[in-house]
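It is worth pausing here to work through a concrete case rather than discussing structure prediction in the abstract. The textbook approach is simple: state the sequence, then state the predicted structure, then interpret. We follow exactly that order.
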Amino acid sequence: MNYRGLVLSIASAILVSPMLSCGGGHSGETYILISTNIKVPYWQSAGVGFKESAQQLGVAYAFQGPDSYDPSAEKEALDGAIGKNPAGILISVADPNLIKDGIDRAIAAGIPIVTVDSDAPASKRLFFIGTNNFQAGVAGGKRLAQELKSKGNVAVFTMPSQPNLNERLRGYLDALGGYPQIKVVHIVDIKGDPRIAFDNTTQFLANDKKEHIDAFVCLEALSGKEVATVLDNNGVKGRTIIAMDTDPDTLQWIQKGVIAATISQKPFTMAYVGLRMLDNLHHEQLKTLDADWARDSFAPVPAFVDTGSAVIDKSNVDALIAATKSLSGK
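Step two, the predicted structure:
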């Protein structure tokens, strides 16, 4: 397996660098990346990719958005970015209903805008760059069925306002369709707060005699390590956790055998490639940004750029961590 894309998503947690710079080329244009939870390792990785791409192109760049999961604050960040008339915007959409009007306004103003990681398909964004979330869910569902030996009760931690997480859930449910004895009995909205995952897992264990939960599926990066911590603190064995993403804590829980597997993504690649595509759009200047490119057989832009995903478990986690240390020097 080629680990470079996976390694960078972890190394970014170590290679923390300023997210604002003034590049010297390309007539001084600026590109902006917007998300929520921008301090978590996943988005720090994206920030590193954005920075590296910008520095290679010689353009100015900024990474903006709230430190917490706050869709309203993300909307404000997008509104502020549009007011600066940047050469292009990448945005990971926390709530498409809040963000749609801002995206459409940017397009109307002639600012290329592309979604990454989480999409707003009903908006006029040009296209989406990120994981094929349905297929990531299918991969997780197949691994879950294997771990459960085709039988058990499952609790899912997610954030239903995000379309990418809904696609992952749809993939899980599709993969589990052939296993009627595996039942999803709880779907918990963590609302961007890992404490909700911690508290709900604690409650599930307290109610274990009434309803035994055999597996925990985490569709986002925050809850996997919380579930693992609760199970470990209570000395609970024999439960399955399928996590999401490759932050250091999640990988350590895999090494310890508490988390069975995680589904990796490539946030570095999303931001790195995304900025380059925005730069090309800025310089090529499409006749119009407001077109239905997804239905155009001769569109100059794609509808979707799949950056890939992979299953990380005990068989490959050590190699991933070793490669990270080699890359970071730590």
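Step three, interpretation. The mean pLDDT is 90. Residues 4-131+266-309 form a domain with the Rossmann fold fold (CATH 3.40.50.2300).
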